[in-house]
Automatic annotation (TrEMBL):
<dbReference type="InterPro" id="IPR044674">
    <property type="entry name" value="EDEM1/2/3"/>
</dbReference>
<keyword id="KW-0326">Glycosidase</keyword>
<keyword id="KW-0256">Endoplasmic reticulum</keyword>
<feature type="active site">
    <location>
        <position position="388"/>
    </location>
</feature>
<dbReference type="InterPro" id="IPR001382">
    <property type="entry name" value="Glyco_hydro_47"/>
</dbReference>
<keyword id="KW-0479">Metal-binding</keyword>
<feature type="transmembrane region" description="Helical">
    <location>
        <begin position="588"/>
        <end position="605"/>
    </location>
</feature>
<dbReference type="InterPro" id="IPR012341">
    <property type="entry name" value="6hp_glycosidase-like_sf"/>
</dbReference>
<dbReference type="GO" id="GO:0005509">
    <property type="term" value="F:calcium ion binding"/>
</dbReference>
<feature type="active site">
    <location>
        <position position="273"/>
    </location>
</feature>
<dbReference type="GO" id="GO:0004571">
    <property type="term" value="F:mannosyl-oligosaccharide 1,2-alpha-mannosidase activity"/>
</dbReference>
<dbReference type="GO" id="GO:1904380">
    <property type="term" value="P:endoplasmic reticulum mannose trimming"/>
</dbReference>
<feature type="region of interest" description="Disordered">
    <location>
        <begin position="723"/>
        <end position="748"/>
    </location>
</feature>
<comment type="similarity">
    <text>Belongs to the glycosyl hydrolase 47 family.</text>
</comment>
<dbReference type="GO" id="GO:0005975">
    <property type="term" value="P:carbohydrate metabolic process"/>
</dbReference>
<feature type="active site" description="Proton donor">
    <location>
        <position position="115"/>
    </location>
</feature>
<feature type="signal peptide">
    <location>
        <begin position="1"/>
        <end position="21"/>
    </location>
</feature>
Length: 1028
């Protein structure tokens, strides 16, 4: 036996690996266990379908019977046949293969074009291509012919008339069967198996319904030689590409005749998902890189407009890119798998982990989930055993082999097994919150959900082939290679990529060749080394030299015989050691490697553990810091709402909309009525503009000040925790006897409650009464200037309103002092030039406060007495904080953030105008015009005289209730620029814990008694609400 380089590396790897704990690893035995359990799950569901539901489409597991859903194809049987092949059940595969050849496709029924394609045609093609592997007898011309292929072609011919629409190119396409003379564009959603497209079929279809045919139809064309199927699928797919917006997004539903989008919301999930999926998989299957280029453009647009930056994707307007609904749909879960296919592994992992938190929360995944409200969408709480999340886990695990993904898959299996299993199969959940059962087991549970779960735990399955090995198949025209790799359609039916070359002119001519032994040279080198080390001539030379050295040639050396004997003994000892080393050199070599490896492993583990502990402390600190920030950000929203509720009172006192509206019906004089109308249009619109601007000011200032204040308080809490303290807390309990976590939590919460209330005062001081009056004045002038030119009878649509509003905004926001550097026109409304000083004594004293300031101060008074260092001057610290905040408010970044929030505020107002304007049009439209609702929204026109009261209604809706104000501020706070800027402020002020204690004060605000603080705050609110 001898040691080569690979053996040494393996030994060292084994030693280091054995030093680690197996905790956190998904063992091979565990994989085999779950593989067996998934197989049991399939046969429980499959046998229940055969026993209780066949030949119906699907099983109802609670009532133990069956019913038809998508066309009475025995759909679950067709969907499950390739899962039988995945599990290796040759006998049952052969039986079902024969059984489904008798499907009746000549009945007078309407069927879904989309579902028929992905489930039935896809299932038939997959079973046809797997027949040879499953030992089903095939003819010599297979895979170019076969009974299931003929059935798939016949069914595809039944749905081809659906493609005869006006959204494609207008050239003629003639197949070899000459059954289609002009197939043009995006298909209808429904077709009759006998008569074609129904007369009353709608022209509206979803994006996925028009772009999910390329895999099945491309396979048909490559196997049969008829190009018509692939061409119509490509034309429909590229027609959707041609209808994309200028920012490379598509809508959710489209008119297949006009090409106009009827649902403007873009998403990665429901209604669009498989369109994106087929761009990537179609590029792989048919080797068309232009499809991958299309998807690359879509991915860039999705990242820019739909991503929230933390792994989630929401709804956005396909033209403007503006986020419209903060919703997650369960069909979104396919997207990490698609990102894996295009090589974006880090982003795929980030999104997959985010989605799995949803699964962990409910034990399943609801159809729709509101990310802002953190709750399921009402009426969409169901979980129909969908496979998309499992599919993404399979793709990412196949690419990374990360054991964490195996734990996720096991988690999903255990949840389905415990929540959805019945005596007659597995059922959907009607509500993921209480796990109420539904009475349906969709066919994709057998086709996709179980198949992907099984493939995750079965790493040796033939479907995981990556092209390293293949089977050469001979046909009359040449040869091709099978099982090189597989592409799954959106129903998880695998298509053999290599089989598509068996029936086309472009055969693969390469033959397999014997592999050259890559280790030949290495073995020869090691053999030479062994012969050299075992050479016996070296041993003889040593013996000869030993005899010469021990011989006494001179007489006088007798006197030094003792030294000669010692020298001889030493030399003899070294020769014996050398002989021992030479005899046992292989063992000693291994021992030395193990010893060195052990030492290196110990040093590595020591450094690794130290690094892990340091990282853990750092992560814990960052987590506490982030948690503190999130808590304060939520508080700032509530604070903004409370402050603005008082500001609304000032706005209402400044405008007379309601009184003028009430007075108009009582006036008969036409001149006086015209004057009132002129005043009304200015008052109503100006008040709405004031709401938009002032709410933006209050939100931006509150978020900034509270974030900076929170960072300052967090920094101070860290300093105080690091200082030794032996004081006694109220109640006689030693401060050192409390746990650090409980003490820090109590300190932070109580400090936050007190200081946030005081921060409200500063926000009110920033937005001064003078600035508000100046804003109202400028808005009145600009509104009067623009709207006075519009006759009351002039018809306006939503685009006209947006244009006139933008003109008013332009007059307000234009730079009047272009010669003055760093001047921003909105700054004079945000705060006065002279920063007001806080009065030392309150003007009035109130015995009660809505915020219970005395109670808050009493719980935190002890914290002000436990400081061991002397605080600096309160005035200096307050002044320093004010200077820093003013610098941030006057910065260009803050002005840019403020403009973004104002844009969002006006966008909300435009949406409200659009909804208000469409109401009259909707009442006048008939039931037959419901499909054109989106067109009505765009084209609705009303005279200005009717739009003016609408502005009053919109103002009342946005400002009349505290809940409406909170929703308004939540919408504005979604601005990513605001979040980044407030996070920057928080980080800036929280880093003061790295500075000396004398630099950072305990509080930047004065610390008078509880009663004076309470009176100070109350007096501010009273002055704000008092009439001018």
């Amino acid at each position: 036996m001898f040691c080569d380089t690979k053996t040494i590396v393996l030994l060292i790897s084994f030693f280091i690996t054995s030093a680690y704990s197996n905790e956190g690893q998904f063992s091979k035995q565990k994989q085999l266990y779950y593989k067996s359990r998934v197989k049991q799950m399939f046969y429980h569901a499959y046998d229940s379908y055969l026993k209780f539901a066949y030949p119906y489409d699907e099983l109802r597991p609670l009532t133990c019977d069956g019913y038809d859903t998508w066309g009475s194809y025995s759909l679950s049987l067709v969907d499950a046949i390739d899962t039988l092949a995945t599990l290796g059940n040759n006998t049952e595969f052969a039986r079902v293969y024969t059984l489904i050849q008798n499907l009746d496709i000549e009945r007078d029924i309407n069927v879904s074009v989309f579902e028929t394609n992905i489930r039935v045609i896809g299932g038939l093609l997959s079973a046809h291509l797997l027949a040879k592997r499953m030992n089903v007898p095939v003819n010599a011309t297979w895979p170019c012919t076969g009974p299931l292929l003929d059935l798939a072609v016949a069914l595809a011919n039944k749905v081809l008339p659906a493609f005869d629409t006006a959204t494609g190119n207008y050239d003629s396409v003639v197949g070899c069967n000459e059954i289609v003379s002009s197939v043009k564009g995006i298909p209808y959603g429904t077709v009759n198996l006998v008569w074609g497209v129904p007369v009353d079929e709608t022209n509206i279809t979803c994006t996925a319904g028009g772009g999910t045919f390329l895999i099945e139809f491309g396979t048909l064309s490559r196997l049969t030689g008829d190009p018509v199927y692939e061409r119509v699928a490509l034309r429909a797919l590229k027609s959707l590409w041609s209808k994309r917006s200028a920012i490379n997004l598509v809508g959710n539903h489209i008119n297949i005749q006009t090409g106009a989008w009827t649902a403007n919301d873009c998403t990665i999930g429901s209604g669009v998902d498989s369109y994106f999926e087929y761009l990537v998989k179609g590029a792989i299957l048919l080797r068309q890189p232009d499809l991958m280029d299309m998807m690359s453009e879509y991915i860039k647009a999705i990242d820019k407009h739909l991503s929230d930056g933390s792994g989630w994707f929401v709804f956005a307007n396909y033209e403007q890119g503006r986020k419209t609904m903060p919703l997650f749909a369960s069909l979104d879960a396919f997207y990490p798998g698609l990102l894996t296919l295009v090589g974006e592994l880090d982003r795929a992992r980030e999104t997959l982990y985010a989605y799995h938190t949803m699964w962990r929360k409910f034990g399943s995944m609801p159809e729709f989930y509101n990310l802002v409200q953190q709750d399921c969408m009402q009426g969409r709480e169901a979980y129909p055993l969908r496979p998309e999340h499992i599919e993404s886990i399979m793709y990412l695990y196949k690419a990374t082999k990360d054991d964490t993904l195996l734990f996720m898959a096991a988690d999903i299996f255990d949840a389905i097994e415990s929540c959805c299993k019945t005596s007659c199969g597995y059922t959907s959940l009607k509500n993921v919150k209480d796990h109420q059962l539904d009475n349906r087991m969709e066919s994709f549970f057998l086709a996709e959900t179980i198949k992907y779960l099984y493939l995750i735990f079965d790493e040796e399955n033939f479907l995981h082939s990556n092209g390293e090995y293949a089977t050469e198949h001979y046909t009359s025209s040449g040869s091709c290679f099978l099982e090189t790799s597989f592409v799954y359609n959106t129903e998880a039916h695998p298509i053999d990529i290599g089989a598509l070359d068996c029936c086309t002119p472009s055969f693969i001519k390469e033959k397999t060749s014997a592999k050259v032994d890559e280790n030949t040279l290495t073995k020869e080198q090691m053999r030479w080394l062994r012969d050299s080390l075992l050479n016996e001539e070296l041993n003889g030379a040593i013996k000869k030299n030993f005899s010469t050295l021990t011989c006494s040639a001179l007489a006088y050396e007798q006197r030094f015989s003792i030294y000669g004997e010692i020298l001889t003994f030493i030399r003899l000892f070294f020769i014996m050691v050398w002989e021992f080393i030479k005899r046992h050199r292989r063992k000693l070599y291994i021992i030395s490697l193990l010893a060195g490896g052990g030492y290196a492993a110990a040093r590595f583990l020591n450094r690794k553990l130290s690094t892990m502990l340091n990282e853990q402390d750092k992560m814990l600190s960052e987590w506490k810091k982030q948690l503190y920030y999130e808590h304060n950000r939520d508080t700032s929203l509530r604070t903004s709402t409370d402050i603005f509720a008082q500001v609304v009172l000032n706005i209402n006192r400044s405008f007379q909309c309601e009184s003028i509206l009430a007075k108009l019906p009582t006036i008969t004089d036409s001149t006086q009525k015209r004057e009132l109308w002129e005043q009304l249009r200015t008052e109503c619109f100006a008040r709405l503009f004031t709401l938009a601007y002032s709410s933006s000011f209050v939100l931006a200032l509150t978020e900034l000040v509270v974030s900076a204040l929170s960072g300052r308080l967090y920094s101070q809490s860290q300093i105080q925790q690091s200082l030794p303290s032996s004081t006694t807390a109220p109640g006689g309990v030693s401060a050192t006897s409390k746990s650090t976590h409980a003490e820090s939590t109590q300190s932070q919460n109580s400090l936050l409650s007190r200081e946030i209330q005081l921060a409200c005062l500063d926000v009110i001081r920033y937005t001064t009464e003078a600035g508000m009056n100046c804003l109202i004045d400028d808005i009145r002038k600009a509104t009067q200037s623009i709207l006075s030119r519009i006759p009351l009878s002039q018809m306006l649509d939503i685009n006209d309103i947006m244009w006139y509003c933008s003109e008013v905004r332009h007059q307000i926001e234009k730079k009047r002092y272009q010669t003055t550097p760093n001047h921003y026109p909105l700054l004079k409304y945000v705060r006065s030039n002279a920063f007001p000083a806080r009065p030392n004594q309150p003007a009035t004293t109130t015995s009660s406060s809505a915020y219970s300031m005395s109670n808050i101060l009493s719980t935190t008074s002890s914290l002000f007495t436990t400081r061991t260092h002397s605080p600096p001057s309160v005035f200096n610290v307050q002044q320093q904080f004010e200077i820093e905040c003013i610098e941030m408010i006057e910065s260009e970044t803050f002005q840019r953030v403020l403009i973004q929030i104002i844009d969002q505020s006006f966008s909300n107002i435009y949406d409200e105008f659009a909804r208000e304007m469409v109401k009259p049009s909707m009442t006048n439209s008939s039931a037959d015009d419901k499909s054109a609702n989106s067109t009505i929204i765009v084209d609705s026109q009303l005279p200005l005289a009717k739009i003016v009261p609408m502005s009053n209604n919109i103002y009342s809706k946005l400002s009349s209730q505290h809940e409406q104000l909170m929703l308004h501020f939540q919408n504005l706070a979604c601005c990513p620029e605001l979040h980044e800027y407030t996070k920057y402020a928080y980080d800036l002020f929280s880093n003061e814990s790295l500075q000396s204690a004398s630099r950072t004060a305990f509080s930047f605000l004065p610390s008078p008694s509880a009663s004076s603080l309470q009176a100070n705050f109350s007096s501010f609110l009273q002055s704000l609400m008092s009439p001018q």
